Amino acid sequence: MQVTMVTAGVLGFLLLVLGIRVVQLRMKTRISLGLGDNADMETRVRAHGNAAEWIPIGLILLFLAEQAQGPHWLVVGSAALLVLGRLLHPLGLANRSPNAFRMLGMVFTWTAVGGLAILVFVHGIGFR
Asked: Which residues, at least 6 apart from 85, have a Cβ–Cβ distance to it below 8 Å?
């Protein structure tokens, strides 16, 4: 459970930072709700929203894989990919055109979630 705890802590701070960035821009632009036809607001809201969408399932699967005593290298590697993916994605969103940071952020996140989902599923059905 230690891998999940460290990963959750790091990703919790990331989600907090992304949320604070949205609030800061809301205060600066006086946009109380929605996007206000502001491209920067849209970018920040989506960076926060995307993290809020992917972090929970990643942590749930990581916790289950760790509890199932999946291979330590796979659990740690998946945690690292998840964190790296979640850090790269908002960096890539800051550049509105498609770029390597955004693409790698998505690929790393999907790889971690997909690998963990397979591990948890296989363990869940009792296949060893």
From this structure: 104, 105, 106, 107, 108, 109, 110, 111, 112
